[in-house]
Design brief:
Helix content of chain B: 40-55%
Oligomer: heterodimer
Low-confidence stretches of chain A: none
Distance between the termini of chain B: 100 Å
Distance between the termini of chain A: 44 Å
Strand content of chain B: 25-35%
Number of strands of chain B: 20
Strand order of the largest sheet of chain B: 9-10-11-14-15-16-17-18-19-20
Order of helices and strands of chain A: HHHHHHHHH
CATH architecture of one domain in chain B: Beta Barrel
Mean pLDDT of chain B: 79
Structural class of chain A: mainly alpha
CATH class of one domain in chain B: Mainly Beta
Helix content of chain A: over 70%
Shape of chain B: flat
Number of helices of chain B: 10
Radius of gyration of chain B: 52 Å
Chain lengths: 256, 498
Amino acid sequence: MIKIIETIGRGLIRFIEEFGQVMFLLMSAATWMVRPPARLRAIFKQMEFVGVNSLAVVILTGAFTGAVLALQAYHGFRLFGAESLVGSTVALAMTRELGPVLTSLMVTGRAGSAMAAELGTMRVTEQIDALYTMATNPIKYLVVPRIVAGVLMLPVLTIIADFVGILGGYIVGVGLLEINSGIYVAKMIEIVELEDIFNGLVKSACFGLILSLVGCYKGFYTTGGAQGVGQATTRAVVIASVSILISDYFLTAAMF
Amino acid sequence: MTKFSVEAKVGFFVVIGMIVLAYMSMKVGKFEYAGEKGYELYAYFDSAEGLVKGVPVQIAGVEVGRVKEISLEAGKAKVAFQLDPEVQVGEDAEAAIRTKGVLGDKYVEVIPGSPQAQPIKPGGRIVRTQSPANIDTLLKQLSSIGTDIKEITQSLSGVLGGREGETSLKTIMDNIRSIAETLNETIQKNNENINRTLDNLAIFSKDLKEISGTNKEAVHEIVANFRQVSDQFRDALIAFSEITGKINRGEGTIGKLIHDEETIRSMNETLVALKGITEKINRGEGTIGKLVQDDETADNINAALSSINEYLQKEERFRTYVDYRGEYLFDSDDVKSYLSLRIQPKEDKYYLLQIIDDPSGKKTVTETTTTVGGTSTTEYKEEIDKDEIKFSAQIAKRYYDLGLRAGLFESTGGIAADYYLFDDRLILSLETFDFDPDENPHLKFKADFTPFQYIYLTVGFDDFISTEGTESFFIGGGLRFSDEDLKTLLSGAPIPKN
């Protein structure tokens, strides 16, 4: 009995410890971020990796999500003859929820795992310690560019996902389901507010921070050789994904 | 293909994102009506139900502004809205809360009023307003309309529907048909007559022509005679005119009578007296006057009328039933038949007349006492007349579910009790009759069940405390018709369709 309670206690302590370490990493990253010199080259490299290289997967995800959303909403709305609202439903869902969340999850899988693996390998091969000896702060050199890239690139990816998703919904709704295109677009424009789009983008920036921070943390503090790197990668993806979904609820509740 | 630098790639990517964002924002973003743009007006509504901040304000279906604020002021909803500066609203404008689409979104419609009217200044009030129609009130009105319609259809169906309506309709149709038939028949029958008449007429006119042709002189003579008669008549008229002239002048007896003052006076007096009498009657003096004027008279007449009405209504309750029942007696393997007439002047009272064909017949006991030399011998002789018919005549009275009967039962005195169950569908009866000092009385128990309107089934035990072994279990059934039923049955004979 006491063992079960001990397990719970240990879990909580570990969670708080880990959370504290993540916060420390964030703090030091923030301080190092504003300290010159700005490592623009490293930042651009990370931006390319996180943003540009994720474009294909995000476009595919967004387009098909919008399309399937239109298909499903059509079946529901047809029951009470409100097919014209399919467009607004797709647009609202994409901009407010699915665009930010799905983009972040895809990027987590693609880039977050890569960050953890990269930094983890550097840690176990003692490259990070070597950086210290070269008087280069590894946080400034490795972590800050990744976090900056995540926070900046996620909104860009999200707005593209939103657009592509709405386009996919339009193709299905107007092209396949033969909803009048004028009504489809007019209703969408009437119901969707600018606020919906911007709040979605703010959310995606937060998710970008979460995924890059978790990825860097798990990689930066990796122990235990090649096995440890693998573990760190998996854990980074799982923790980042879960954190994104949980924080999504609270962000939505706070913003809308 | 030149290889792009990392910076170019990222820059290109960000630019695309920015363009997409800008495009979507421009499409979706609405120019806010808040703040400096436009001017504000307000209106008071009885109810601003369903109205929210930011809903559109329309004139003729064109959006010209937005609702800015909704607040409560002195029990009314004060709705303030922002209008485009180029839109002018006259002082006689009207603001209404309307519902848009199936989903029931509310918006404010402004009916701008006449162009001559002075425009309302910014910050002014639109005085005339229309609040949204309350669904509850509408429903209430609709339901009362529905009730009215239902009443109408009910009374219609009362007139046309039902057996009575059907019968009367049928009778009307029958009458029309028979009239048409008679008419047709008459015309057909008299076709010859008419033809003959026309023939006669032709012959007659021919004769007439002949007469006028051959007897022209005689005709002339007749005409001359006629002229002479008319001359004499004219003379008579002249003489009559002379007589009336004389009367007018007061000459002769009649003339005097009419022109005499006294005659006129006495006539006047008569008229005055007559007037007095009618006045008296009017005032309620004298016997006739009292009769005419007294309220009691009217009351009496009314009472008399209502009692007649009541009597007539009672007559309506008067029912007659004809009933045949057969009972199969298991012990004697015979059928006992009853034919009865039930006269029911009131719901709770009836008279029953019955003819009974009893297979066991009527038993007659003859007692013969012969005295031979001091010793008397008594002989009993029993005679059974199988063909003898028995009679019942009873009077019955009902108290709620219990009925009592008394009178003649199968040609002997007796009493009986009936118990009515399930809306008179099941009747349990116990009859006691034929009280004989030497034998047990005849007791009969029966249960009559009426599953349908005219048919009933019966089961029972006859004479169950008999000492002569005549007790028998029986089962049977019967038919019962009321006078109404008979009427319907007789008049409801099918009408040939052609």
